[in-house]
Amino acid sequence: MPANLPLARNGLSNHLSIDLDEGTLEIVKAAPGSIYSVEITNLGNATRFVKIYDAVSGPAGTGTPVVVIAVPTLQTVVWHAGGVGIKFSVGICIGATTGVAHNNTGAPGANEVVVNVTFK
Fold first, then answer.
1. Cα-Cα-Cα-Cα dihedral of 91, 17, 22, 62, to 10°?
2. Angstrom distance (rounded) from CA 19 to CA 62
3. What distance in Å separates the CA atoms of residue 19 and residue 35, rounded to the nearest whole number?
4. Low-confidence residues of the chain: pLDDT under 50
């Protein structure tokens, strides 16, 4: 098996959002799981920050994200967690803000941040 393929059995699932935003986090998985990759497109006019939490709910800007991914203006970033993924023991939630600080609650514009999360 090639080294860059996930080691997940029975396939992976995908979470798609065409308007990832601040406010209430989007639930990717409301149970323990693992993330294998995240593809993010920023259609906005400034860098946006996608934050992934080990949680099943909550508002962006509270708690400490497990992963923060900066996405420059008019760019797509593909982030790979490696063949075995990153484990989340509670659940997987995701949000986007205009600032990198963990407590930032700045709102990206409508349909600015598009994301695909591959998970198990």
1. 10
2. 20
3. 20
4. 1-2
